[in-house]
Specification:
single chain, 336 residues, alpha/beta, Quinone Oxidoreductase, Chain A, domain 1, Rossmann fold, six-stranded parallel β-sheet
């Protein structure tokens, strides 16, 4: 079978490998769609902190179930997976949070991923397609990241929720903040993405961080109170550190984005707010089910996100362009 390997930052190469052989506890999938994620792009750039080379990228997938010992799955059925393979024994797993397992192996990050014609996965990771399309199934995982972040924030009806970063993860976060009843504010420096948020996602308040006085705009929008929920979806050190000043007293700040360096903020300013800082890692099966239900009930339109479609067999030569802002890529979908 053909696979696409990221050998070193900036270097992608097609290779031939043996089709995986079945073994107990695993199932064989024929890959149909793979969405490009920020994790993949950062791995290509060399800025993903949990990544090792060489690696086959890809964890946002839709596939055809081929064979294996998964209970209730039949050959030919469309499926996706929860790509965070967990140990089932650590404190996180035992307390129902396998998304942050202490021994986690994320598909396409710690183990080889879905940029391959076939993929062998733990049978427990499978998710029934439930009538969703291939494109919809491949979008469940990135949307679940946003759903998990909003669940962590425990957004209440009527709260102002500032989402920093209008990439695919940030946009998904905005969608689920809206579904939770939050009043969403989008902050980015990309005017085209902010326009997309207004026109496609119905976000009422957008702020261009490159042009606007962010603090004053936030005060205007919130009647001087500032947002009670702040979510970073940039993974940018400067943006993360700046955002502490955007928090209302009692606010919760959720880090969905990830970067390699230290976070710096004023302890007195943080302390006087009795603020809460938390990370949000991956997602749970509950989040996957919530996202699928939202799709099935028309609460979100996942196809809004797909801006580019590329054949797997042409991906290597086109990959670098999707990092460039001028490309306008929001979600790139790879077809097999």
């Amino acid at each position: 079978m053909k696979v696409l390997v990221c050998n070193t930052p900036g270097n992608l190469q097609y290779q031939e490998k043996e089709k995986p052989s079945l073994k107990p506890g695993y199932s064989l999938l024929k890959i149909k769609r793979v969405g490009l994620c920020g994790t993949d792009l950062h791995a290509f750039e060399g800025t993903q902190p949990y990544f090792t080379y060489p690696r086959i990228l890809g964890h946002e997938l839709a596939a055809e179930y081929m064979d294996g010992d998964a209970q209730g799955f039949t050959p030919g059925e469309l499926v996706t997976i929860i790509p965070y393979f967990n140990c089932g024994k650590c404190i996180a797993c035992k307390t129902g949070r396998p998304n942050c397992c202490s021994n986690i192996q994320v598909c396409g990050v710690h183990t080889d991923g879905a940029m391959a014609e076939y993929l062998l996965v733990p049978s427990y990771s499978l998710v029934h397609g439930s009538g969703l399309s291939l494109d919809e199934l491949a979008l469940i995982e990135p949307l679940s990241i946003g759903a998990h972040g909003i669940e962590r924030a425990n957004v209440a009806e009527g709260e102002y929720v500032l989402v920093i970063g209008a990439g695919p993860i940030g946009m998904g976060t905005m969608e689920f903040a809206r579904i939770a009843g939050g009043k969403v504010i989008a902050l980015d420096i990309n005017e085209k993405r902010l326009l997309f948020c207004k026109e496609k996602l119905g976000v009422e308040h957008v702020i261009n961080g490159a042009k606007d006085d962010v603090l004053n705009r936030l005060k205007e929008i919130t009647n001087g109170d500032m947002p009670t929920v702040v979510v970073d979806a940039t993974g940018n050190k400067k943006a993360i550190n700046n955002a502490f000043q955007y928090m209302a007293h009692t606010a919760r700040y959720v880090l969905v984005g990830l970067q390699k360096e230290e976070i710096c903020f004023s302890h007195p300013e943080f302390h006087k707010r009795e603020a809460t800082l938390m990370s949000s890692r991956n997602a749970t099966r509950k989040n996957f089910e919530f996202v699928m239900n939202a799709m099935q009930n028309g609460l979100i339109n996942p196809k809004n996100y797909i801006t580019h479609i590329v054949s797997f067999y042409n991906l290597a030569e086109n990959f670098a362009q999707y990092i460039k802002p001028e490309t306008g890529a929001i979600k790139v979908m790879t077809e097999f």
